[in-house]
Amino acid sequence: MNASRGEVVDAKALADALAAGTIAGAALDVFAPEPLAADSPLRNAPRTVLTPHIAGSTSEAQVNVAVDVVRQVLDIIDGKPARYAVNAPRPPADEAGGSAWVRLAERLGSLAAQLLDERPGGIELHYAGQLLEIDPEPLRAAVVKGLLETFSEQRVNLVNALAIARARGLDISEDRETESARFRALLTVKVGSTAVGGTLVQGEPRIVFIDGFWVDVPVEGHLLLTKHQDKPGLVGRVGTLLGQHDVNISSMQVGRLHPRGEALMILTLDDPVPDEVRAKIGAFDDVDRVRTAKLGV
């Protein structure tokens, strides 16, 4: 019985074996080529059942196919990759982090692009630690997708992202490091002078590195980032100003190189920051730079 691929059976040899009685019977649903040639010896072979590639057309199979398709559509709507797409990079296995790594890679590409002052000319990807055990292709495509979506009006997805990057002359370079200093696995994306990195924490993607500062930031929401001098009162003034304009803070993270030195504050917000509020924050004493970004919203 063969319901897999026609190429696994030698049609003439099988017909001869059936005619000689070496094989008692055969049932075939697939052939090479299809449709089965009119002069194929299988058409006249004794004790043979031939069906035209319909073994999967049972009521149960059709229900299962419909359920699989709907689940993949829901995955796409939810921002996840299609699990069984034939022309898209396949996400890592669930035990290796699954689609969470792909979502993280896309968010890193998007964040790096939003922190730039100009269009990128290239991307550097750095894989460290246990990330080396994962096929880099879906991560590469996801980073490029996140980056290109920031600048391009063209629809970008995991299937066409790398082709669009090549067409635009975007250079992609990669390096690998067997060990990661802080995390078991770390993906770093560098575009121009901007570098961002992320990992999975208890299976959830987190941004843990931004431009030299170690942080812990979710990959969803509106972000407000300030580079400033680490002095008392600044964080409170920023929070007060946002509250006065009904901008709600969901989380806050401050990374610093040393006490009272250069620091990076990242606020995750429920709402975008109005331009006039951003300008007021930028005018605060000791604030060197203010940037905003949005991830997954």
How would you sum up this structure, described in words?
By secondary structure, the chain is an alpha+beta fold. It folds into 3 domains: 6-50, no CATH class; 97-219, D-3-phosphoglycerate dehydrogenase, domain 3 (60s Ribosomal Protein L30, Chain: A); 221-297, Alpha-Beta Plaits (2-Layer Sandwich). 29% of the residues lie in helices and 28% in strands. It has helices spanning 11-20, 59-77, 99-114, 136-151, 161-167, 234-244, 275-282; strands at residues 26-28, 48-50, 122-129, 171-177, 185-191, 194-201, 204-210, 213-218, 221-229, 249-256, 262-269, 287-295. It has a 6-stranded mixed beta sheet, covered by helices on one side. A 4-stranded antiparallel beta sheet has the order 10-11-9-12, sandwiched between helices. α3 (99-114) packs parallel to α4. The model has no long low-confidence stretch (mean pLDDT 91).
Rg over alpha carbons: 28 Å
The share of residues in extended strands comes to: 25-35%
CATH fold field value of the largest domain: 60s Ribosomal Protein L30, Chain: A
Helical fraction equals 25-40%
Q: CA-to-CA gap between the ends?
A: 52 Å
- CATH C-level label of the largest domain: Alpha Beta
- Using the alpha-carbon principal axes, give the shape: elongated
Question: In summary, what is this structure?
Answer:
It is built from seven helices and twelve strands. It is α+β, with helices and mostly antiparallel strands. A hairpin with a 2-residue loop joins β5 and β6.
Task: Write out key terms for the chains shown.
60s Ribosomal Protein L30, Chain: A, elongated, alpha+beta, four-stranded antiparallel beta sheet, 297 residues, six-stranded mixed beta sheet, Alpha-Beta Plaits
